[in-house]
Write a structure and sequence with these properties.
With 145 residues, this protein is mainly beta. It is 8% helix and 57% strand.
Length: 145
């Protein structure tokens, strides 16, 4: 059954991330600093190298792959919620190389920023905590009707 919760805008943040910072780490650090416990993220820019993940539904394991070359960030979207009492960023990213080839997946630590503009929309509403989902094996939002 589909379960949705109503949230209200609580603030909008816009800025640029640190050159040579870890993309996932920088976003997470900002969310912790600003106490963003529920939100939506978008970003664009470029990275020096990338580490992406793919969740294998059969084995229920993430497989990570590394690209040691520059890319444009064509899309980065994600959410902020809570896991084990701390803000957790869950983001997917699509990257393009110099020939227009695109690669995408789960944003992982080890993706190094060249230039990145970030928008975070924070929300007030029910706190969404991530927990183990039996159906998928993933840390999904625990939601009740």
């Amino acid at each position: 059954m589909t379960i949705m919760k109503r949230v209200k805008p609580a603030g909008l943040f816009i800025g640029k991330l640190k050159y040579e910072g870890d993309l996932l780490g920088e976003i997470t650090e900002f969310c912790i600093k600003e106490n963003i416990r529920l939100g939506r993220i978008e970003a664009l820019g470029s990275v020096q190298k990338a580490r992406l993940g793919f969740y294998n539904q059969e084995t229920r394991e993430y497989h990570f792959f590394n690209f040691n070359r520059p890319f444009e960030i064509t899309t980065l979207v994600g959410s902020v919620s809570m896991k084990d009492g701390s803000p957790m960023v869950h983001a997917h990213i699509t990257l393009a190389d110099g020939k227009g080839n695109c690669f995408g997946g789960h944003l992982a630590a080890g993706t190094i920023i060249y230039a990145c503009e970030l928008t975070i929309e924070a929300f007030d509403g029910p706190e969404l905590e991530r927990g183990h989902d039996e159906d998928t094996g993933l840390p999904l939002w625990e939601m009740e009707e």
